[in-house]
Amino acid sequence: xxxxxxxxxxxxxxxxxxxxxxxxxxxxxxxxxxxxxxxxxxxxxxxxxxxxxxxxxxxxxxxxxxxxxxxxxxxxxxxxxxxxxxxxxxxxxxxxxxxxxxxxxxxxxxxxxxxxxxxxxxxxxxxxxxxxxxxxxxxxxxxxxxxxxxxxxxxxxxxxxxxxxxxxxxxxxxxxxxxxxxxxxxxxxxxxxxxxxxxxxxxxxxxxxxxxxxxxxx
Amino acid sequence: xxxxxxxxxxxxxxxxxxxxxxxxxxxxxxxxxxxxxxxxxxxxxxxxxxxxxxxxxxxxxxxxxxxxxxxxxxxxxxxxxxxxxxxxxxxxxxxxxxxxxxxxxxxxxxxxxxxxxxxxxxxxxxxxxxxxxxxxxxxxxxxxxxxxxxxxxxxxxxxxxxxxxxxxxxxxxxxxxxxxxxxxxxxxxxxxxxxxxxxxxxxxxxxxxxxxxxxxxxxxxxxxxxxxxxx
Lengths: 218, 231
Ligand SMILES: [Zn+2]
Hints:
The complex is a heterodimer of chains A (218) and B (231). With 218 residues, chain A is mainly α. Helices cover 58% and strands 5% of the residues of chain A. Chain A contains seven helices and four strands. Chain A has helices spanning 8-15, 24-50, 76-82, 113-120, 123-128, 140-201, 210-217; strands at residues 94-95, 101-103, 108-110, 134-136. Chain A has a three-stranded antiparallel sheet with strand order 1-3-2. In chain A, a hairpin with a 4-residue loop joins strand 2 (101-103) and strand 3. The longest helix of chain A has 62 residues, at 140-201. With 231 residues, chain B is mainly α. Chain B folds into two domains: 9-183, no CATH class; 195-230, no CATH class. Helix content of chain B is 46%, strand content 10%. Chain B has helices spanning 8-11, 32-40, 42-47, 56-60, 78-89, 93-106, 108-121, 124-131, 154-163, 178-183, 195-209, 217-220, and strands at 2-4, 66-67, 69-70, 75-76, 140-144, 149-153, 166-167, 170-171. A three-stranded mixed sheet of chain B has the order 2-5-6. In chain B, helix 5 (78-89) crosses helix 7, helix 6 (93-106) packs antiparallel against helix 7 and helix 7 (108-121) packs parallel to helix 9 (154-163). The longest helix of chain B is centred in the C-terminal third of the chain and has 15 residues, at 195-209. Chain B starts with a strand and ends in an 11-residue tail after the last helix. In chain B, 39% of the residues are buried. Chain A binds chain B through residues 66-70, 73-74, 113-114, 117-118, 120-121, 126, 131-138, 140, 142-147, 150-151, 154, and chain B through 1-6, 42, 45-47, 49-58, 61, 89, 91-92, 94-95, 98-99, 102-103, 106. Strand 4 (134-136) of chain A pairs antiparallel with strand 1 (2-4) of chain B, so a sheet runs across the interface.
């Protein structure tokens, strides 16, 4: 077939791994199919227009994944950072990347987080991201498993908090010890200072304090 | 089996084909005005989308107060939004009991949520037999009011569900009185686990001030009623 009599172009192409070498018949069949689909779509759109309706490309439900719950909050904060001033009169769901909340999958920009979330929930967005919008119903076993998972997560967090608390307590104890140690050190220093003073004179002075006298005695 | 992530089929009242509770779409158990506030709220749009009875637990374990609506704008609490989501999901009875018992032991707000759902959706006899055991649950609950929060206890909340006609921005459908169901032999007389203690207390009081109070009073009310329920 085509790959047997290599042209200069094909030889060059085969050197680069990222280029797929098409089987011509496969390629032609694919092109024919796409052309048929386009033609069919054009006819359907034309017929819909005659009836005064808007035509939508049918969705192949078999290829869609079930929709699931959000893993967390929609991260609005990180998007706000990217957005700049919103131009006056910006329409809802503006085509293309603009100032505001941008949906990559649909190439639409929304001016506030509520509109953006509404878009994320919309049929249009779900289909564009390969989701059916249908959620699998939970069984009793699903609920039990979920409770177990959440319980385990809670325990782990409690453990972690406890550990952090202990570290915190250790740190506080250590700090208190340090302070006490420093204070003891300071008292010792003062005592020695006094003693040295007393020792220097060698004479017991009348008005020397209690500590001074102690220094001399010792 | 599946359901719509945005609960659209449950919310569409005219074309509704899902399970009925007391002959109607369960969402109608919440008043229309409150329903609209729920479905317009950010919590509903962001946090309730795509939940099923298992993933709803992720949200329920994060609840930190009960309540209906709050603030001047009468915003719905996450508690009420999740209760409403449950009404669109109509989980099987065993699942609700799992929420109440296994889940409720660990997370008090999950128990409160399930109890509220039980009061709205179960049959009268089941409501009493399912909820009464929790009249001994003395754990504290925070409740969000129009302004600020108040502190209450689980047993008070359960008592409210069994005896009042409104709770959490929702008018509770008329539940036949306990006595009525007892008279129809549908319910056994309830002996409060606290009854022995109450009797003892009565005896002690009688011994102390020598006041021979009518002994029938202690056994008259099978439910431990909150002080505000009468008067
Ligand atoms: Zn999108």
